[in-house]
Amino acid sequence: MDVNETITWLDQWFDRLIEEKAYLSELDQKIGDGDHGNNMARGAVATKEALESKQPADVSALFMTVAQTLMSKIGGASGPLYGSAFLAMATTAKNSENLADIFAAGLDKIQQRGKAEPGEKTMVDMWHPAVEALKANNLSQEVLDEASAKTAELKATKGRASYYGERSIGEPDPGAESSKYLFEALIKAQA
Ligand code: ADP
Ligand code: MG
Ligand code: MG
């Protein structure tokens, strides 16, 4: 994807985050402090503004702007995680156009920073299957829906949600859902 196609993809993600603000916060209300939708929508609005005011020269510069804006506007646990993911993606995008490699770098950074493994009910439970599918060239809505349904059954052992113990079981993880919208937008952008 060139820089304009990548902007279109990310812009769809931002619009979706803004649309689903109430739902994401509702999910976070059940197993956290109820702010994930507000956090992500704030980051989305700010990043849309940043991209409108200055067109990035290439995909790497685009990911860098996204990283910096998300890092400074989202806050909480998810801001630094998304921020460092896009930072790693910006670095990888300098030398590669391969989306599997780019997202794998993002996932590595999320895991380095958050120390979460798959199965702990975090955004890793969306990124991990999505990256595996990208590597196998079979990322689809089904892969994402399955990952989302799986996070609902998991008990959280990382982040704020881990304080809820068994009560964290039943609904999807908010960060996994906001990440799902990123990959859904990617599927649409590639169609
Ligand atoms: P906070 O928990 O600080 O209020 P948010 O509500 O914005 O931050 O984000 C919560 C989401 O962050 C969770 O649903 C989960 O997906 C993700 N998260 C939290 N801790 C970790 C971690 N250690 N590793 C990966 N993701 C995490
Ligand atoms: Mg929260
Ligand atoms: Mg919070």
UniProtKB/TrEMBL annotation:
InterPro entries: DhaK_L_YcgS (IPR012737), DhaL_dom (IPR004007), DhaL_dom_sf (IPR036117), Dihydroxyacetone_Kinase (IPR050861). Keywords: Kinase, Transferase. GO terms for molecular function: kinase activity. Residues 4-188 form the DhaL domain. It comes from the Bacteria. This is Dihydroxyacetone kinase subunit L. It comes from Aerococcus urinaeequi. The lineage of its organism: Bacteria, Bacillati, Bacillota, Bacilli, Lactobacillales.
